[in-house]
């Protein structure tokens, strides 16, 4: 299990993009690749998008989502040189100004630790609430699965292994 926890933590701390799968209330599916930062206790992914984006509209309709994180340059970790996870959860728009302010600072600090680079990328806070065109979103992960790399090495069957969320977040400080 410790290898599964280590792999999960590595993906969450080092892979900056994930694919979000949403659907409309009528069942139309959509996938978007998004830049995110991770928060723990509970395990969450934080990102921002245009409020008018298709996945943003889907989240406003209902927040049940799925997603994946994939990393294909890990030769030291797997004989295939790749690793990845799939997850389900509930996403929501951050709409309250006070909550948006907290997420805004957390997101930019953790996505751009270097102050000079952060200042280049940082948009005004007013872009993210009221009449601003963007919104922050939070996805609380409910279930997490890793690629079964060991199983694939033995029988070449593409399987997933469920990893308990509390084992991933236990004793894990927020990044930085």
Tally of individual domains: 1
Rg estimate, integer Å: 17 Å
Strand content: 25-35%
Instruction: Kindly name the structural category.
Output: alpha+beta
Q: Please outline the major beta sheet.
A: 8 strands, antiparallel
CATH class: Mainly Beta
Mean pLDDT: 89
Q: CATH fold name, please?
A: Pnp Oxidase, Chain A
CATH architecture: Roll
Describe, in plain words, how this protein is organized in 3D:
By secondary structure, the chain is an alpha+beta fold. It has a single domain, classed as Electron Transport, Fmn-binding Protein, Chain A (Pnp Oxidase, Chain A, Roll). Helix content is 31%, strand content 35%. Strands 1, 2, 3, 4, 5, 6, 7 and 8 form an 8-stranded antiparallel sheet that branches. β3 (37-39) and β4 form a beta hairpin. The longest helix has 15 residues, at 97-111. It is globular and about 55 Å long. The two termini are 25 Å apart.
Topology of this protein?
Blueprint: H1 2-14, E1 17-23, E2 29-35, E3 37-39, E4 44-50, H2 54-61, E5 64-71, E6 83-94, H3 97-111, H4 115-121, E7 134-147, H5 149-155, E8 160-162, H6 165-169
Antiparallel strand pairs: 1-2, 1-5, 3-4, 4-7, 5-6, 6-7, 7-8
Relevant terms:
single chain; 176 residues; alpha+beta; Pnp Oxidase, Chain A; 8-stranded antiparallel sheet; 8 strands; 31% helix; globular
Summarize the structure.
With about 180 residues, this protein is α+β, with helices and mostly antiparallel strands. It has 6 helices and 8 strands. The chain has helices at about 1-15, 55-60, 95-110, 115-120, 150-155, 165-170, and strands spanning about 15-25, 30-35, 35-40, 45-50, 65-70, 85-95, 135-145, 160.
